[in-house]
Write a structure and sequence with these properties.
Elements (H helix, E strand, L loop, with lengths): L1 H5 L6 H21 L8 E2 L13 E2 L13 H4 L1 H21 L9
Antiparallel strand pairs: 1-2
Length: about 110
């Protein structure tokens, strides 16, 4: 059923508009996250900034952040991934809710 929803030939105009806005929102969030500067993946165990490279420990994946994020909230990897998941969920819900009525009858 999910694969049927994702086939472009089955989409009506309302579904195409929702799909377009979902993809556009994901691309916008991607650029607001701005991963092109790299990620801060290590930290000092003492919480300060002045420690040697040998003292640094790696953060877990969900604690990584992008220092060049246009909006600081999107810099955190958790916020970024949850936002993309939410947008994808809304997009799939849009495709399901606005499908043609003749597709539902056997």
């Amino acid at each position: 059923m999910l694969m049927q929803l994702l086939k472009p030939k089955n989409h009506n105009n309302i579904q195409r508009a929702g799909f377009f806005f979902s993809v556009a929102a994901m691309v916008t969030v991607f650029f607001l996250h701005f991963p092109f500067d790299g990620y801060n993946i290590d930290k000092c165990p003492s919480g300060g900034w002045n420690c040697n490279d040998s003292e640094r420990v790696l953060r877990s994946f969900w604690d990584w952040y992008s220092p060049g994020a246009i909006l600081n909230w999107f810099g955190n990897m958790t916020h970024f991934m949850v936002t993309l998941t939410f947008i994808a969920s809304i997009g799939l819900l849009w495709l399901y809710v606005f499908k043609d009525k003749e597709e539902t009858t056997p």
